[in-house]
Amino acid sequence: MNTERETAVRAELEEFIQTREFSCLGARAALKRDSITHRHYRRMGEASSAAENHRDLVEYVRTVRPLLSDQSFRTFVATFDEPGTVDELAYEGLIWQHLQLMHDLDSRSFGLDKGATSDPALPNFGFHTGGHAFFVVGMHPGASRASRRFSASAIAFNSLAQFVLLGEKFYSMQGAIRRRENKNNGSVNPSFTEYEYEQPARHFSGRFTEEDWQCPYASRHEPATEDFTAGLMGHGR
Q1: Strand 75-82 and strand 153-159: pairing?
Q2: Which of 164, 176, 178, 236 is most enclosed, with most CB atoms within 10 A?
Q3: Do 88 and 144 touch, CB atoms closer than 8 A?
Q4: pTM of model > 0.85
Q5: Measured between alpha carbons, how far is 32 from 95 in angstroms, rounded to an integer?
């Protein structure tokens, strides 16, 4: 790993989070509290980079799980040397290829988080690593939304358990984020206004997906027996 490059990208990430166009208040809070874990890899969608990302995210889960609360804002951000600037379809293919490689490794040793599933067609889908479910936010130079348009290809892994622990604060923060997005970027991300919580996988890459979109990801886990969205996401279903 090129530590000089990693340091430079980390500085770019911190600067990006503080721009007017960046809308996620949770990431801003994490930056302020120095609770962003950042790792840098060679190429998204490459087996060796996915294996390194998986190893680091498993270690992150072990560290962060006991620290989560209704006051915590923590995230793991993976950045990559490649690809550089690609269009949204190409990036979408690469991020799901990368997540699939990680999942294929993870599912050999770990299972599902409580109330979440690995089935991307369902509302309680989470990307699982180390038995912990995440909501994924893809960012890259070719993103159509300014709040996703980072100088390097990147993946932010946000704990679903953290969202659950926030309770009603989740909706307050979501409302503030959308007001900020509308003010600074001209509109709320149409992916959220169109699909809201019915299929979180649609939001991962940042591209606005077609109505008949099928997620290019196959779960290796058994079906979930619980659904955390029955309580948390009742506002939007």
Answers
A1: antiparallel
A2: 164
A3: yes
A4: yes
A5: 27
**39-62 tens-digit pLDDT:** 999 999 999 999 999 999 999 999
Other C-beta atoms lying within 10 Å of the C-beta of residue 54: 20
pLDDT of residue 234: 47
* CA angle (7, 9, 10) in 5-degree steps: 65
Instruction: Taking the CA atoms of 166, 170, 171 and 172 in sequence, report the sign of the dihedral they define.
Output: positive
Residue with tokens 């993946």, as numbered in its chain: 155
Rg, C-alpha atoms of the chain: 16
Task: Write out the two tokens for 165.
Answer: 């622990």
Q: Which helix (H) or strand (E) holds 119?
A: none
Dihedral angle over CA of 11, 54, 28, 147, nearest 10: 80
Q: Which positions of the chain have pLDDT values less than 50?
A: 232-237
Q: Which of 74, 22, 40 shows the shortest CA–CA distance to 154? A: 40
Query: pLDDT digit string (tens) for 98-109?
Result: 999 999 999 999
- Predicted local distance difference test score (pLDDT) of residue 85: 95
Tokens of 129: 């690593």
